[in-house]
Design a protein that fits this description.
Alcohol dehydrogenase, 9 helices, oxidoreductase, 8 strands, NAD(P)-bd_dom_sf, globular, Sc_DH/Rdtase_CS
Length: 274
Amino acid sequence: MAATMVRRVLCVEDKVFLVTGGAAGVGAGIVRALLRENARHVAFLDVADREGSALETELLNMFGALRAKFIKCDISDEAQLAAAYKQVLDKYRRLDGVINNAAVLSADERTVKKMVDINFTATVTSTMKALDIMGVNKGGGGGTIVNISSLLALNLGTHLPVYAATKTAVLQFSIAMGAEKAYSESKVRVITVCLGPTDTAILHRNNLGNFDKDSAGPIESRVPVRQRVESAVSGILTVLDKGKSGSTWIVKNDQEAYDYTNKLNQAFEVLAQT
């Protein structure tokens, strides 16, 4: 059964959010959902200028002036990312939440560095900038960071090794940054969401041209579309509402989000006994 959209997410109401990769797919769904949940302002970053501008126009017409702001930004470029954060602070004077959603998926060896730079390095950089702004130990008011990982971070496999590695790195990094000691100092929750395959352009057949011809078929069969964007977004809202700092959640197969932290901790305990 498909998950239903969570309502009255109190940690969203009247807050200012920044979403990376927000022009389409899950990112655009998150932006829309935050505004429906009465976020004060939502800024979203993306390299897709046409899609981002169109979404901004749609949202301003729907929710009113100043509620949404599209910023064209290649988050793998640290200078552009820093400028985007500065633009948000200059415009809204505060920041309460960041959702690091942007990612690229490719089997083309020529794009390996870009995949690492966007999926992992930019997530680290964005998280650190958000902590510098929101951390009470840095003069901020606290807040929430949600970093989007993948079920591939939890499963051993041989396909998409670079993508899986970046998402595993995001998981490990986010758990460490959200640990109790760090949270007690910053009052910024850092939470990880591992998404199952979701019905976005990245998994559509016409996008498989990014993969070599010999692997396109097998990849499509191994990564079937399992859940709607709306279900992924609903799960992320649930995590915003209920997630503790350092926790890891799974959102897959159109099911409600569930906390996987205890099982993951048990698995790490086993691995540590080597």
